Amino acid sequence: TFAALEASGTNGFSNFEGKCLGHYCVYAKLYDYPRALEYNTRALLVFEELGEKTGIARVTGTIGSVYSGLHDYPKALEFFGRALDLYQQLGQKSGIATVTGNIGLAYLSLSDYPRALEYYLRALALQEELGEKRGIAHWTGCIGELYAKPDFDGYNASKAEDYLLSAVAMFDQLGVKKGTAECHRFLAQLYEQEEQAAKALRHFKTYHELEKEVLSEEAKKKADQVDEQRQEAEREKQRAIIKARDEERIASQEGLLNRMLPPSIAQRLLKGERVADYYRDISILFADIVGFTPIASRMPAKAVLAFLNHVFGEFDAIMEKHGCQKIKTMGDGYMAVCGAPLTCEDHAERLASAALEMMNDIELPEEIRRTLPKDSVFRLRIGLHMGPAFAGIVGEKGFVYDVYSDAVNMAARMESSGEAGKVHCSADFAYHLQNRDERFTLEERGEIEVKGKGLMRTYYLLG
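RESULT FIELD:
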């Protein structure tokens, strides 16, 4: 959500406390919350022995954030409450403001929206008193997001709009593009709920434009290309949706869309929906047939296509078996996800199982084997990562369902920096997978240089 704690490893705007201990920050960003909790508990004991009250308050609040990452919100509230008392005793208003807002975030996760609003408003008042502009912008946006929730009894589109627009102005002035982008995203959702399509579309486009600017340089190039296509695709999509509503053509269109798109997306499109979704956490796979390009240059075009159709057909069957979704092919490359468009808790386990099955030898029909050069050797290279992503319909003349985010680019990096015959995964994916299912075997590769990311610790999925 808009208001997610950065300390919990999700997509928040900023961590206003900004002073969590190094061990906590590293392990939390790796989604290893048990280790984060272990080190912060140790730190708390040391601060208590030293009688260092500021350190006690800070780490107590950080432990609350770790429990939020573990989705144990009652325990998180317990530690936030202790931290709030300590900061009040110390008279440290900045700490009071941070913990007050974090209490609101915990109540939001518990769907106790009235209490969440109460603490948001307190946090905003404290930030205004301190003159901390970034904090003011953040909590203003959080309040706007809350008023825009359809399941909130206090749902108020007018207030949501006012708060979100105010936050946009403040983030713009501060030059915080991520904050501005998130505000536009929630404004787009709000206007869509209120059936104000033009405004929704305008803010949705603004959100994507800003989101692209905060991606890595490599991701930004790709996002720029997508944006150029989207401008034309929006008009084409609207024309196609209108045609899809035509009763005389809907049967044939439905059959066509079901072949081109995931069934759930095709049905939404036929109902006239504008498909643009955000997923907090999905797993992403990229695969490449190593050694195919030079061999393909010595094969007839029909043979190349027959080979790829057969191999990718096998991959498609594996994805369907494990409840994953193929996204696209790129030459001899293959991309798939799990957790979108249909969400599931075990997306990492499903995609890991699919990746391991893809590594098994694929039996080629005799008519295809005859067309291959005698010295042909093919090996698969797979990369896995997980993280947030947005997905929707793009394309100029035909519909294409695609997924975009920095997490997608990271999965591609895992594939390109891996080794033939191995499943290469990020630390985020590895830790998440091991925490959920101990049956999977992983081998640490160590730190490698990842383009656009620097040194990263990665793993091989063995079985």
